[in-house]
Amino acid sequence: MLQYPQIDPIALQIGPISVHWYGLMYLVGFAQVWLLGRWRIRQGKTDLSVRDLEDLIFYCVLGVVVGGRLGYVLFYKPGDYLANPLEIFFLWQGGMSFHGGLIGVLVVLFLFARKQNKTLLEIGDFIAPLIPLGLAAGRLGNFINGELWGRPTDVPWGMVFPQSGDSLPRHPSQLYELGLEGLALFALVWWFARKPRATGQVSAVFLMGYGVFRFLVEFTREPDAYLGLLTAGLSMGQLLSLPMIIAGLLIFVLSARKSSH
């Protein structure tokens, strides 16, 4: 059994201004998207310019924040926020949804693609390999905050999280997600994208890979107390991941058929 290392969530304090590790992880995530995107541009993986990449990152930041927050409100706590709608804007209280953020990003990618006279999947194929390391940074932020802990376990690396309100050893599910949704997914999508692929297939591998990894990790992650387990004993994260897997599979198959004609 391990004890959670108490980490101060505040990385830097300057007078009344606090810089939190979680916010820094978002900056790290978007910074690596910029660096990897520049590398892919230099390698001729797209005809987008560095200026286009910077515009795309700016729009994606908006998509992540707005979509992630609205997704959390609609998927996880609709009743609470319906009763207190102004709290939707209280971002400092936490509460973001990956699946909502993904929808937000898809919206801005669609609008950006139209502006560039490209398809959504063309833009998606360029940016998909850049995303997983950003997700890894976000999960590291979750671990530093001591949030989103796992279910009770008797594995040797079970960790006691004081924030959970008990002394039970739990799965460090944030680190599982860092490893699977972050590092393993990055290796998979980056490897797959190294060669020319039919339009949409890189995006499809990302969708399927994230969906499968998130679905599996959710078996070790403590369900949200206000939701618990839902249909067929699955968590909300698992139910939201299933459409990603199905969509990725359909895109992959259809793009393969289209390219063979």
Structural description of this entry:
There is one protein chain. The chain has helices spanning 21-42, 50-75, 78-83, 98-115, 120-127, 132-145, 173-192, 201-217, 236-260, and strands at residues 2-3, 10-14, 17-20, 159-160, 169-170. The protein is 60% helix and 6% strand. With 261 residues, the protein is mainly α. It has one domain. The mean pLDDT is 90. Pathway: Protein modification; lipoprotein biosynthesis (diacylglyceryl transfer). It is a multi-pass membrane protein. Keywords: Cell membrane, Lipoprotein, Membrane, Transferase, Transmembrane, Transmembrane helix. It comes from Pollutimonas harenae. The chain crosses the membrane at residues 19-36, 56-76, 88-113, 120-140, 175-193, 200-217, 229-254.
SSE layout and pairings?
Elements: E1 2-3, E2 10-14, E3 17-20, H1 21-42, H2 50-75, H3 78-83, H4 98-115, H5 120-127, H6 132-145, E4 159-160, E5 169-170, H7 173-192, H8 201-217, H9 236-260
Parallel strand pairs: 1-4
Antiparallel strand pairs: 2-3, 4-5
Question: Using only CA atoms, what is the Rg?
Answer: 19 Å
Proportion of residues in β-strands: 5-15%
**Number of separate domains:** 1
Strand order of the largest sheet: 1-4-5
Q: Compute the separation of the termini in Å.
A: 57 Å
Structural class: mainly alpha
- Following the backbone from N to C, one meets helices and strands in this order, namely EEEHHHHHHEEHHH
What composes the largest sheet? Answer: 3 strands, mixed
Shape: globular
Q: How many DSSP H or I helices? A: 9
Average residue pLDDT: 90
- Low-pLDDT segments, ≥5 res: none
Number-wise, the strands total 5
What helical percentage do the residues reach?
A: 55-70%
